[in-house]
Amino acid sequence: MSLQRFIHEAISPWMKNEGPDSDIVLSSRIRLARNLEEHTFPVVTSNEDAEKLLNDVKKQINPTTSHRRFGDLSCLEMKSMDKNEKQVLVEKHLISPALAEKSPYGASILSEDESLSIMVNEEDHLRIQCLLSGFRLDEGLELANEIDDWLEERFTYAFDEQHGYMTSCPTNVGTGLRASVMMHLPALVVTQQMNRILPAIHQLGLAVRGIYGEGSEALGHLFQVSNQMTLGKSEEDIIGDLSSVVKQLVQQERAARESLLESSNNHIEDRVFRSYGTLAYSRRMESKEASQRLSDVRLGIDLGMIKNVSASILNELMVLTQPAFLQQYAGEALSPDERDQRRAALIRERLQLEAEKNQD
C-alpha cells in the first residue's frame, strides 16, 4: 500500500479539518460516562452480564443504525480484533488502553468520520466521546449531549436525583463529564515557563497529562488539559472553567513564540531546520526523538520559517509513527529496531510527498 493511500485510510477524517486556534489547540474532546440501571457496574460485573449488556447495545445500535448528525454507526467488538488492531484504535484515541485490555465483551461504536466513539463495557457501561479539531469545547458538548439524549431514548441510565449520574469512579459522579484539549506548547517549554504554569493549573482543579492521558509522557510538547471533578458543577461551569484556562494558555504560548522570534530568532531557526534535516535524512528514529523533531518542525511551520509543508504533519505523524501503526503499514510484526527503521522511512516518505505536492 502506498503511503498516500495509507494516510488517507488511517487518519481519522475529523483530523484533516482545521478548527479555531488549531496552531496551538490540536483537538477538543468531550467524554460522558454513563451506566445502565438494569446491569451490574463493569468494575464488579461477570462475563455473563458484560456479554448481555453488549448484546443489548447491539440490538439498539446495529449495522442498519444511522444518526442524523453522525451518519451510519458501526460496532467494533474487541473479541473480533487482534492485539495490534486494538492498539491502532488506542493510538487514534478512539478507545482507551483499558478497553483494549479488558474482557472480550468490550466494543467501540464509531461514526463514519470517527469523531464519535461510544465505548461499551469499559470502566463504565457507556463512554460517549466526541472529538473535534481545534478549540471547540462548546460544540463538542452540544454534540455529546445530542448523542446522550439519543441513547437515553433507548436505555435507562443509573441516575440519582441528589448525586447525578452514577459512575464506577467517584471523580466522575455528577455530570459524568470529562472535557479535554490537546495543546502544542513548545514555546512555553523552551522558555521554561511550563514549570511555573503547571502547578497553577493543578491548583485550579484541572489535570495536565501526556498525549495518551493519565500516566503518559508529554511527548512532542503535547499536553492534554482536562477537568478532574464532575460533582457539584454544571456542564456549562466545567466547560467554562476549562475554556478560560485554555484561552490563557493560548495567549501565553503566542507571547512566548513572539519572544523567541525577537530574542532568539537565530537559535530557534537553527533548531527547527536541524530537526527538519534529521527527519528528512535519518535511517533510524526512536519514538521520543521523532516526537521532539516533529514538534520543532510544526513550530517552524507555525512561525513561518518552513514553507510549503502542511501544518497537519504533526497530527498525522504523531499517530502514524506509533508502534501499532508502523506494524500495520509494514503488514507484519516488527522488533523495536525494525520499528525505528520503519519510523524513519515513513517520515522521509511523508516529507517527500510534501515536496512532490509542491512541485505540481
UniProtKB/TrEMBL annotation:
InterPro entries: Arg_Kinase, ATP-guanido_PTrfase, ATP-guanido_PTrfase_AS, ATP-guanido_PTrfase_cat, Gln_synth/guanido_kin_cat_dom
Domain Phosphagen kinase C-terminal: 24-256
Coiled coil (UniProt feature): none
A GO term, aspect molecular function: protein arginine kinase activity
Enzyme class: transferase
NCBIfam families registered for this protein in UniProt: PRK01059.1-4, PRK01059.1-5
Function: Catalyzes the specific phosphorylation of arginine residues in a large number of proteins. Is part of the bacterial stress response system. Protein arginine phosphorylation has a physiologically important role and is involved in the regulation of many critical cellular processes, such as protein homeostasis, motility, competence, and stringent and stress responses, by regulating gene expression and protein activity.
Protein name, per record: Protein-arginine kinase
